[in-house]
Amino acid sequence: MKFGVLRFPGSCDEVDALDAARRVGDAELLWHGDRDLKGADAIIVPGGFSYGDYLRAGAIARFAPVMESVIDFASDGGLVLGICNGFQVLCEARLLPGALLGNTNRRFTFRQLELEVLNSGGAFTRTCALGERLSIPAKHAWGRYYADAETLAAMDRAGQLVLRYAEGENFNGSLGDIAGVSNEQGNVLGLMPHPEHAVDELIGGSADGLKIFESIRLTVEGARV
Amino acid sequence: MRARVLIRPKAGILDPQGEAVERALPALGFEGVTNVHVGRLVELDVEDPAQLESMCDKLLANPLVEDYEVVLDG
Questions:
Q1: What is the tens place of the pLDDT at every residue in A148-160?
Q2: What is the CATH number of the domain that holds A128?
Q3: For residue B14, which phi and psi values (nearest 5 degrees)?
Q4: Range of the domain at A101
Q5: How far is B59 from chain A (nearest CA, A)?
Q6: Min Cα separation A106/chain B (Å)
Q7: Which chain B residue is nearest to residue A58, measuring alpha carbons?
Q8: Which residues of A touch B13 (CB under 8 A)?
Q9: Which residue from A63, B14, B20, B69 puts its CA 20 to 30 A from B39's CA?
Q10: Structural domain count of chain A
């Protein structure tokens, strides 16, 4: 299978995402100004500070030419993973419900933390067990997930709350300790922590992030059978 | 036409910036200040002010978490 990894001006985690994806399949960078997804089976919207995060994080990247193709791709059921700034971009594009606000601690914060898998049946977490803990780093200033109460309740019922911060790990003030959410169809996932930075025990102290990439590969290859 | 768009966090959504400012003021001797909220100001010249609301909904504000107010000057 092939991953397409977007690169905006100001992206900074696209190379790690490319490396993580290449541990389970092929991967290629896709420039923000191009519309061609180059035959990718899954898209990664990486972390960083796209377009300087001017106005609001993700607000301008959401209108990049490549995003028009990503929105069409997602509407057709294609798998799209947004990490950190990528999560913010997907929320701004309304591919995911809710929004990300400034951390309640008002600081850019970097921490290795524990996530809990709340939905292990989905396209992005099928290699995980329900309740399994993943050790993955987070680093951001705007990671406080917010959606109104009605939306959150509907997301909970539909299994869209996929990952949450384990007890004591929610430094950004996300409602319900939510760390990662999917759309209703389950083919778009956004999360603030960085699975692409946890793919090698030697340099990351954990390779738990690979499970997300491996899940995507299994989903794509399963769909082909 | 000159326009100003005032963007503020929606009521009920935690505003850590506003809280930090509210706590800082008494430390400088300014008492009796409550309900501090910090938002953004966008100033722009527009040929067609009728488009401002659409500009706000699509780009300038995020209506899920922010309220906006358009003020036309002159």
A1: 999 999 999 999 9
A2: 3.40.50.880
A3: -55, 130
A4: 2-224
A5: 7
A6: 7
A7: B59
A8: 101, 146
A9: A63
A10: 1
